[in-house]
Specification:
The structure is a homodimer of 374-residue chains. Chain A is α/β, with parallel strands linked by helices and 374 residues long. In chain A, β8, α12 and β9 form a beta-alpha-beta unit. Chain A is globular and about 65 Å long.
Chain lengths: 374, 374
């Protein structure tokens, strides 16, 4: 994907100001509109704030998933993580949403940790390292409280015996032109990276293989991952499987107010392993919509629309819409200054991380309940 | 590889009249000359007829393997088979030779059955089918009498958990240009085939991984498989392993006197599962160097140099050089006609197959002793 549109978005690179509406057109996905939101609400009795706020804003075939559900065909979910470092709060977004889907629909989740991918796509990264990050990242998944009976986490290199035969079926139907067009590969791309999309496709068909009958699968994931599944969908029927459905989220913004939260820029990213001191320091330095002086801000008010602090609330840390709007209003009126506003979020994030980190500690004893391997 | 040289030779296509001397130049390998033959003889006390007759005629670094051996560093062997059908006697050649090496040097053999390869490279072949041929082909390996303590046969999809992490290290160092240049791939090649050479490379480093120390490895194989290992050798040191050494054999000729014995032309190929009747029929119809009439042949003599029957003797079924020469002489003198000559070989082949097929039956109970899986 080139930068003609003013941004770059592939599964491995996101930069510039992403035009999410443009992505719907370019990728050929459907918007999660009010009708679909209402349909979900009718079935499960509520709408998650990430749907309401259009953070999960785009989909493929989710109406079909609901059709199947209403017919009594339980679907399965699949999502994952590329373990190249610590988990940051942006990664948690689709997982928090998946947890909600699991609670509401009572469905199984398959969670892929792609240690192979991160080894292949990062020249300096050793496989031992990505495997160790995979185990570490699994703690973050478990800490969110997924149902251990219905949640199956696997690390690619430990589950490859099961994944590989499915990946081969996918790989046989994709050629270099296909992956070149979708991912922008060229002749210097390594052959592991060229093959890799087959490994990320395989779990779409894993529930069907494990249960021995056709299981509809929906993938909640960042919109940057859609290219993989576009390829998967193109070939799914040919190899005898249902096409996977998708629910796409917008990517969590960075604390400096530009682009996507990125693990490679730790200063502008909150990791789940951060200490209260880290959080305080990072959020205190975040880009806001405040004025140059307290005096000016009290007079003119701030701009919450461009504020990283307010974005963090909106995307993850404040489920209550009225609360979000209340702070925005106070900001615009000059009734709250950035320091106070930051202090409020710092407290909120640290409370979240305290609970999450406790969960991570407990998760160390629970790995066996969640992790599946060959 | 194009047909500029009047023949095509890749791991997946062999046609035309192969110029084996030309291959040494083009591939940059070394001839197994008298000096190397003598060195082998000095160490183990004899020279196998396939070395003496220059059927195993080319190598890479086999002197280094012998240096290591003489220093007390035991090497390992690796060879394999693409299970797309029944085994034919041409396939047995490098295995018979490997058996001799095992007996003489007391070394371990790792034998790879590439069910994934044959699935990926044959559009109409199902993975279940190639896996089932893999098990069937394993019987042929076992029937040759390899030492069960020192022989480790694996099917890729059953051993991928062990193979995959090694294959990833290889895959990360090979790009599309590399495999395109060596195998003649293009943009329409499927991504599984593009990746596959990494899977065939991995066993070169398997003994090192399993033993936890650097193990020199030599691969006895058809010269058509060399391109895979040329790539492997290029990157081996970079990823911390010894380069594999190679011993290359010429490919067994077809019974119609043209090209290589091919499983896809059953009439001109003897399979290990053939009945005595099959053998009689196929050898009776083989191309020979005989004359148009018995009378003419008694007068002018035949030409054993172009005779498929004589080739079969030379390549596989007659270890005794004097015997081969005796028949050639009789043929040239017109002292033996094709019928008698064929009858003699039919008897020899059927005796061989009788013993081999008995071995295959017994092998069914021995699979557990030879097959390693995850």
């Amino acid at each position: 994907m080139d930068a003609d549109e003013g941004y770059v978005l592939t599964p491995w690179e996101v930069s510039g100001n992403i035009d999410y509406d443009d992505l719907i057109k370019r990728f050929g996905t459907s918007r999660i509109d009010k009708t679909l939101q209402d349909r979900i609400e009718n079935i499960v009795g509520e709408v998650h704030f990430m749907l309401r706020r259009e953070i999960f804003y785009s989909h493929r075939d989710f109406n079909w998933i609901l059709d199947q559900y209403e017919k009594g065909n339980r679907f399965a979910m699949y999502t994952g993580r590329g373990p190249s470092g610590h988990t940051h709060v942006g990664h948690l977004m689709p997982w928090i949403f998946a947890k909600w889907l699991q609670d509401k629909f009572g469905v199984d989740l398959y969670f892929q940790l792609t240690d192979d991918e991160k080894f292949l796509f990062n020249f300096d990264m050793e496989l031992e390292k990505t495997h160790s990050f995979a185990l570490e990242n699994a703690l973050d998944v478990i800490a969110l409280g997924f149902d251990p009976e219905k949640t199956h986490i696997f690390i690619d290199t430990d589950y490859i015996n099961t994944i590989y035969p499915i990946a081969l079926k996918v790989a046989k139907r994709l050629n270099f032109s296909n992956v070149k067009a979708v991912f922008g590969f060229d002749n210097s791309t390594n052959v592991g990276s060229i093959f890799y999309t087959s490994i990320q496709s395989a779990p779409c068909f894993l529930p069907t293989e494990l249960e021995g009958k056709d299981v509809p699968v929906v993938i909640p994931c960042g919109i940057d991952q859609d290219p993989h599944f576009r390829l998967t969908r193109d070939i799914a029927n040919t190899i005898g499987y249902f096409k996977p459905a998708l629910l796409h989220n917008k990517l969590a913004p960075s604390l400096d107010g530009t682009g996507k939260m990125s693990a490679s820029i730790p200063k502008t990213t909150i990791f789940t392993t951060d200490t209260p001191k880290d959080v305080k320091s990072k959020l205190s330095n975040a880009f806001t919509g405040g004025c140059i002086s307290a005096k000016e801000q009290r007079e003119k008010g701030g701009n919450p629309d461009i504020c990283a602090i307010q974005n963090y609330r909106y995307f993850i840390f404040e489920e209550n819409d009225e609360e979000v709007e209340k702070i925005a209003k106070k900001c615009r009126m000059g009734d709250i200054l950035c320091g106070e506003c930051k202090a409020q979020l710092i407290e909120k994030v640290n409370a979240f991380l305290k609970k999450h980190q406790d969960g991570r500690e407990k998760a160390k004893d629970l790995l066996d309940q969640y992790i599946i391997s060959d």
